[in-house]
Amino acid sequence: MDLLDRVLFLFKQKDWREVLELNKVECEVVTRKLLWVWPSESNLKLIKNTVNEFGLNGVISIGCGCGLFEWLLQEYSGLPVIGYEVNKEWWMSKYCNPHFIELNFPSLPPTEDILDPSYALLFCYFNNGPAFRDYVNCYNGDLIFIIGPGEGAGRHTDPEPFKPEFGGSKWTLCELQEVRDTKDFIAAYVREK
Ligand SMILES: C[S@@+](CC[C@H](N)C(=O)[O-])C[C@H]1O[C@@H](n2cnc3c(N)ncnc32)[C@H](O)[C@@H]1O
Fold it and tell me: So which domain of life are we looking at (predicted)?
């Protein structure tokens, strides 16, 4: 069984723990089709605990791709995770990967009504700085997760987890954790009051 079939089989069984175990898979090309960051249980715990600490109701993931990371987070934490993507035609076509959560396609530029302030925002391997700032400008909540490569990883995201450019609003780093030993990091930022 190839990796995608294995993940789909486990997804249907709702066996998120076994999907997490597949993080040892070596083949980057295949895994990147599914997700850029294959989390550990302690990575999911960090997100869950931080969301709970801030008394928030869930997570909105911007640029969630096929939503496998989001499904894992949802199953692990019990928190609702809402996924936003662009390019509806592609994601609804027969050529794309299966989706692991429902995908939503907001009209752009984003507006306040699509970003419930009682949810944290998540940007995992997001790659569009101006769009990131558009979302942040419309968000009235207090917690943003950024997942991306640390220095020396040889990969690039915009925003980067350590030097995000938020635009007009001010945010402080409150949590940081490496994704296993990948040189990718989860950074949580809280709004400065
Ligand atoms: C490198 S992929 C990361 C996908 C997924 N988060 C992951 O970690 O596997 C970046 C994703 O951001 C999406 N994206 C780019 N601009 C966007 C925007 N303005 N709003 C929502 N999603 C966007 C792309 O379609 C793409 O799926």
Answer: Eukaryota
Domain of residue 108, CATH code? 3.40.50.150
In what side-by-side order are the strands of the sheet with 58-62? 103-104, 81-84, 58-62, 119-124, 143-149, 184-191, 171-178
For tokens 């400008």, what's the residue? 137
User: Using CA atoms, how far apart are residues 141 and 189, in angstroms rounded to an integer?
Assistant: 11
**Domain residues for 168?**
37-191
Pocket-testing residue among 31, 85, 101, ligand 1, by greatest number of atoms within 8 A of Cβ: 85
Q: Which residues pair with 81 in a beta bridge?
A: 59
Residues in a beta bridge with 142 = none
Q: Token pair of 49, please?
A: 């605990």
43, 105, 126: residue to mutate for ligand 1 pocket, most atoms within 8 A of CB: 126
What pLDDT is attached to residue 148?
Answer: 97
Q: Residue 55 has what DSSP assignment?
A: T
34: confidence class by pLDDT, cuts 50, 70, 90: confident
Q: Count CB atoms within 10 A of the CB of residue 150.
A: 17
pLDDT beyond 70 at 27: no
Q: What is the pLDDT of residue 30?
A: 59
Q: How many domains does the chain have?
A: 1
In a domain, 20, yes or no: no
Q: Does the beta carbon of 121 sit less than 6 angstroms from any atom of ligand 1?
A: no
* pLDDT above 90: residue 24: no
